[in-house]
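Hey, resending since the last one bounced:
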Amino acid sequence: MYEGCPVELQMERNIAADGIFDEAVYHCSIVRYDEDEILTLQLQGDELAMISLDAKYRCYIKDKRNLLLCMGVVCERYQSQGDNLILFRIENGFYEQPMD
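The structure tokens again:
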């Protein structure tokens, strides 16, 4: 459904009491979208260790016609065949955003 679409991932808030808030924007692309509301994202760059498992993230998805926003958490991050992959669990669906 959204495979191949570019994504911007940004921390919304840190869940861990002693965690550090990360203001960076991470660029990804969607590898797969599962019906269980899980996005598999391929992270561009080598910052995989910077992605927190103890935070809520905003995920902006750009398809051909829309800019979509979803909120969620990273439930897993790993390397597979040289790719940095993130499993992102969507909470409360997608929201359309105005295109700039």
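The domain at 6-97 is CATH 2.30.110 (Pnp Oxidase; Chain A).

Sorry for the duplicate.
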